Amino acid sequence: MTTLALMKRIMALEADKTAALVGLGRRSGAEEALAEADAALDAAMRQLAALGARYPLHMAAEADGLDATDYLLIQLALMPHVAPDHAHALLALVRDDAPPRAAATLGPPESTPAPLTLTDAVALFGPGDDDWQAVENAILAQRAMTAGYVAIGPDADRPLRPGLAVRELLGWP
Asked: How far apart are CA 170 and CA 173, in angstroms?
C-alpha cells in the first residue's frame, strides 16, 4: 500500500475510532468497535512507519501538546469530510432531525455533507450535564479551538470545521 493510501486508510480508521469512543455508554458494541478500530489503526500506523512516514495530525498533536479531547474535537470536525456515515450516526445520537445518510467521500470540505455543530459537540461531550454553557465554554477553551485546529463557521448553527492548521496538514484548500 502506498503512503497516500495508508494515510487515507488512517483517516477512515480515526473516524471509526471516534465513532466508537462517542458510542461508549450510548450504543451496544461500542467497546468491541473501539478495540477493533484501535487494532486496525495500530497496524496501519506500523505500516506507515515502515515506509518512513508519520501521520501528520499525530505529529502536530504531539508537537502542540494536544490532549485526547483536543484530538477528538479535530476528528469531529473532520468526520463529515472523511466518514459521512459516521457523522450522521453521531448526529442521530444527539438530534432528532439528523440528515439522511450520505455516500462516503474522501475529499475536500466543499464536497461534503453538513458538519457537526458546536451544539452537537456539547451534547456529545456533556450528556446529562445541565450547564450546557459551561460545557460549551470548556470546549471553546480547548487548545484545538484556540490554536486553530478546529474553527467554528459563521452561520447560526456554528458548524465545526477543520481549521487552517488541519487543512494545511492535509493539503486541503
From this structure: 9
